[in-house]
């Protein structure tokens, strides 16, 4: 079964590389959204520094959402999902593998771009490490929760809008602790408690989300 | 078609006395009863041909047989054991070739086939099997071509290659001849004959006139009238 999961992740990574548009789109959206803020709120350095963490997190969250709709859609439409379900991997494992590939192809580039954008938004360099750590712990949770949503809206018309409505409220805890981690390091407070909370959210999502997504895929296949 | 091009297929499948049967099956799609009271039995080495007009539920029956959906009534058994009790074992013993071909346009022919073979655990001799499978359906020259350049018939042939790239005892084929030229149709016949000789079972949706010799025929129009 591990070989089967590895095969799915390998195929999805290769597909993402060949048709790089989807993951590129997420990063470009992230960069543009962050760059727009200095124009909107004015270039005052202290204002930017104050909102930087929130802007970065909200933009990253929306960017991750952007490509989620296609997570299972392509496999559903071309019949691959049927064949995946008929293979040795159970549906929760298939969902987990596809979510892992999604995280690797969209969130990892976002995390890499985040420090550069933090510089533009005048985030103090001391907060960079906590920003990256918080994103590393928080974005997998976003992909996992989003994976459940993407499986639920499979086959629905205008699934993208429905997906945003379903998933965005569930992103709030990650957003709160992600921003708090960066904020704490900006004013010299302990960052660890917030990171632990993000890690706890990730563990809960890791345990529950693949099963929920697998159950939703079962519904879509029937 | 030479024997060597079917080298990927095993000469003897493990379960030589397998019996695949359905009793009193009913199927509902979108709240509408598609068929009911349908029963069938196929044994190792036999083929069951499904015929009937459009929308009579042939493809739905294939999905039931694959275990992708559950019957509204009745049961499907493999050697007297309900397939729902051990769906993982059932999935492992079948190939489904449906209308959708599950081909990724961005991957090459080789990568497309290789993924499904590896996913189903084709094992160490996977690349030899894949080469044999491509040769059996005359796709070996296109192995490195991205699948987006394939014609409809070539896509169909690539789907059929999955049958040969990893062994399975039960083949469920939904109109496998659609879009095939004469040569590919002959290759398919040879593969089916080899599969049945090795103790395999095939369930094929076909038009009434071109079914393989000595196959059982399940006529959906008759089922409807009777049920």
Automatic annotation (TrEMBL), chain A:
Compartments it resides in: Cell inner membrane
Transmembrane segments: 21-41, 47-68, 100-121, 127-154, 161-183, 195-217
Mode of membrane association: Multi-pass membrane protein
A Pfam family that the UniProt record links to this protein: CcmB
GO biological process: cytochrome c biosynthetic process; cytochrome complex assembly
Keywords attached to this entry: Cell inner membrane, Cell membrane, Cytochrome c-type biogenesis, Membrane, Transmembrane, Transmembrane helix, Transport
GO cellular component, as recorded: plasma membrane
GO MF annotations in UniProt: heme transmembrane transporter activity
Primary location: membrane
Entry superkingdom: Bacteria
Protein task: Required for the export of heme to the periplasm for the biogenesis of c-type cytochromes.
The family this protein is said to belong to: Belongs to the CcmB/CycW/HelB family.
Name this protein carries in UniProt: Heme exporter protein B
Species, as recorded: Candidatus Defluviicoccus seviourii
Gene from which this protein is expressed: ccmB
UniProtKB/TrEMBL annotation, chain B:
Residue ranges annotated for the ABC transporter domain, each copy included: 13-225
Pfam families: ABC_tran
Entry keyword set: ATP-binding, Cytochrome c-type biogenesis, Membrane, Nucleotide-binding, Translocase, Transport
PROSITE patterns, alphabetized: ABC_TRANSPORTER_1 (PS00211), ABC_TRANSPORTER_2 (PS50893)
A single GO molecular function term of this UniProt record: ATP binding
Superkingdom of origin: Bacteria
GO biological process, one term: cytochrome complex assembly
InterPro entries: AAA+_ATPase, ABC_transporter-like_ATP-bd, ABC_transporter-like_CS, ABC_transptr_haem_export_CcmA, P-loop_NTPase
Protein name: Cytochrome c biogenesis ATP-binding export protein CcmA
Organism: Candidatus Defluviicoccus seviourii
């Amino acid at each position: 079964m591990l070989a089967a999961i590895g095969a799915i992740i390998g195929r999805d990574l290769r597909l993402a590389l060949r048709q790089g548009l989807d993951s590129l789109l997420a990063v470009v959206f992230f960069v543009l959204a962050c760059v727009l803020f200095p124009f909107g709120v004015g270039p005052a350095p202290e204002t930017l520094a104050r909102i930087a963490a929130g802007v970065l997190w909200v933009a990253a969250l929306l960017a991750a959402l952007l490509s989620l709709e296609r997570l299972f859609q392509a496999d559903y439409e071309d019949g691959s999902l049927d064949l995946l379900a008929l293979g040795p991997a159970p549906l929760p494992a298939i969902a987990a593998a596809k979510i892992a590939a999604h995280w690797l192809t969209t969130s990892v580039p976002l995390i890499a771009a985040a420090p550069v954008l933090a510089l533009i938004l005048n985030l103090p360099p001391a907060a960079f490490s906590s920003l990256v750590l918080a994103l590393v712990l928080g974005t997998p949770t976003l992909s996992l929760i989003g994976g459940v949503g993407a499986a639920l809206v499979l086959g629905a018309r205008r699934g993208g809008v429905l997906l945003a409505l379903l998933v965005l409220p569930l992103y709030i805890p990650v957003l709160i602790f992600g921003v708090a981690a960066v904020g704490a390091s900006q004013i010299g407070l302990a960052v660890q408690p917030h990171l632990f909370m993000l890690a706890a959210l990730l563990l809960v999502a890791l345990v529950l989300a693949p099963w929920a997504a697998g159950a939703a895929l079962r519904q879509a296949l029937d | 078609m030479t024997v060597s091009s079917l080298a990927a297929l095993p000469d003897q499948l493990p379960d030589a006395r397998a019996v695949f049967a359905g009793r009193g099956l009913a199927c509902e799609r979108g709240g509408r009863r598609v068929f009911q009271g349908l029963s069938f039995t196929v044994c190792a080495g036999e083929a069951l041909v499904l015929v009937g007009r459009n929308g009579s539920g042939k493809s739905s029956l294939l999905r039931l047989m694959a275990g992708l959906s559950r019957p509204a009534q009745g049961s499907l058994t493999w050697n007297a054991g309900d397939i729902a009790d051990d769906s993982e074992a059932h999935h492992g013993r079948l190939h489904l070739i449906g209308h959708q071909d599950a081909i990724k346009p961005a991957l090459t022919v080789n990568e497309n086939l290789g993924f499904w073979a590896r996913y189903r655990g084709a094992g160490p001799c996977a690349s030899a099997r894949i080469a044999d499978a491509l040769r059996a359906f005359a796709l070996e020259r296109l192995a490195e071509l991205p699948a987006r350049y394939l014609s409809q018939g070539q896509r169909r042939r690539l789907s059929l290659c999955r049958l040969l790239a990893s062994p399975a005892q039960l083949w469920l084929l939904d109109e496998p001849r659609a879009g095939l030229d004469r040569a590919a149709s002959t290759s398919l016949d040879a593969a089916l004959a080899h599969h049945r000789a090795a103790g395999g079972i095939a369930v094929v949706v076909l038009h009434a006139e071109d079914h393989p010799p000595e196959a059982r025929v399940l006529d959906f129009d008759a089922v409807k009238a009777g049920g």
